[in-house]
Specification:
Number of strands: 5
Oligomer: single chain
Strand content: 15-25%
Radius of gyration: 14 Å
Helix content: 40-55%
CATH topology: Aspartate Aminotransferase, domain 1
Order of helices and strands: HEEEEHEHH
């Protein structure tokens, strides 16, 4: 059995769990598997090749320029704070850094403050 979206979601969960983020829930975002904080998706599994992160538009552009083999843009996401990435091309260490950024971008202010206080 090859990689499926469940395996990808498990990888994302494992990396997020290691960060000890409060109030992360497994859910869906427009019908596809996602991890949410405060009811907002911060990462979702688009398909077996692509994961999408919630990140500010200016940060998206930096990452695409930095590593175009991993991060990319489609017409659907132009102008939106969503960054597609090729899941097979990104290592766990970098993916975890991006998940931290995405969680911080989407988390309510009081949750970010609680995490900063730890």
């Amino acid at each position: 059995m090859g990689i499926d979206t469940g395996n990808i979601l498990q990888r994302l969960q494992r990396l997020v769990t290691a960060c000890h983020f409060p109030e992360v829930e497994i859910s869906t975002h427009y019908g596809i598997p996602a991890l949410k904080v405060g009811g907002k998706a911060f990462v979702w599994v688009k398909n077996i090749e692509t994961v999408v992160l919630a990140l500010p538009v200016d940060r998206k552009e930096q990452l695409i320029e930095m590593a175009p083999e991993i991060y990319f843009q489609t017409d659907h996401y132009v102008g939106w704070p969503s960054l597609p990435l090729r899941i097979a091309e990104i290592g766990d260490a970098e993916l975890q850094l991006r998940l931290i950024e995405a969680w911080q971008f989407r988390a309510p202010k009081k949750l970010r403050a609680a995490l900063d206080a730890v």
